[in-house]
Design goal:
3-stranded antiparallel beta sheet
Length: about 250
């Protein structure tokens, strides 16, 4: 058996053992004898066993679901709130060296920041301006995580869960507000109708013959009714005229 055959096999085994592949979405953090030495870009690289250690870091955008958190608003209302945070590793070396577990660290930081942000606003502001509160949370988390090589893309508040008693109270307030608006609209309509009637009465009283014309129009309208009952309307002036004739 030729000598070069075992040698080739040994070389092939060493290559298989030493070669490392870094995918396009990864970065390779290499430690040589315990010290950070370099960052490997995507492709094939040779790792020296025993002396070197490789840690792969995924640099794609990650979505972390921040679990439900108990929080109290500025007006002392207890709520439960959850969110999702989108971030990516900007500096792979810092993400490995500066923090033990950057994934868990970002999640814990988001939970704490979210509770603090909720405590700085009243409930109405939180419900009406979720986007603004989310932006404040993002700024804080992004500023703190910069030291870890993390870039926070966005933070989105998902659900704001209110106590059942508070939900019933809000529903009653909303119903009362709707009833208030209905009463206001109805009263405004009555005021307008009364003003129009007063104006019409003034015109009928001051214009000669207007009342008689109105009476004739009313009789004409009643004559088109298909009912068996006919209503006759006699002006007060006609009654006075008849009364005068009777005295003669």
């Amino acid at each position: 058996m030729p000598v070069f055959v075992p040698v080739a096999i040994i070389v092939l085994v060493l290559v298989i053992v030493c070669i490392r592949q870094i995918n396009q979405y990864d970065r390779g953090i290499v430690f040589t004898m315990g010290k950070f030495s370099t960052i490997w870009q995507p492709g094939w690289h040779i790792l020296i066993p025993v002396f070197q250690r490789l840690i792969k870091v995924d640099v794609r955008v990650k979505a972390v679901d921040v679990p439900d958190q108990e929080a109290i608003t500025k007006d002392n209302i207890p709520i439960r709130i959850n969110a999702v945070i989108y971030y990516k590793v900007q500096d792979a070396a810092k993400a490995v060296i500066e923090v033990e577990d950057f994934f868990n660290a970002v999640s814990q930081l988001a939970q704490t920041t979210m509770r603090n942000a909720v405590g700085e606003v009243v409930l109405n502001e939180l419900l009406a301006n979720k986007q603004g509160v989310s932006e404040n949370i993002k700024k804080v988390v992004d500023r703190v995580s910069d030291a870890w090589g993390i870039d926070v893309q966005s933070v989105e508040l998902k659900d704001i869960i209110l106590p059942e008693s508070l939900k019933r109270t809000i529903a009653k307030v909303a119903e009362a507000e709707r009833e208030k608006q209905a009463v206001i609209i109805n009263s405004e309509g009555e005021v307008g109708a009364a003003a129009n009637m007063a104006k019409a009465a003034e015109i009928l009283a001051t214009t000669p013959g207007a009342l008689h014309l109105r009476t004739l129009q009313s009789i004409n309208d009643l004559s088109s009714d298909q009912s068996n009952t006919t209503v006759w309307m006699i002006p007060v002036e006609a009654l006075k005229a008849l009364e005068g004739l009777a005295k003669k």
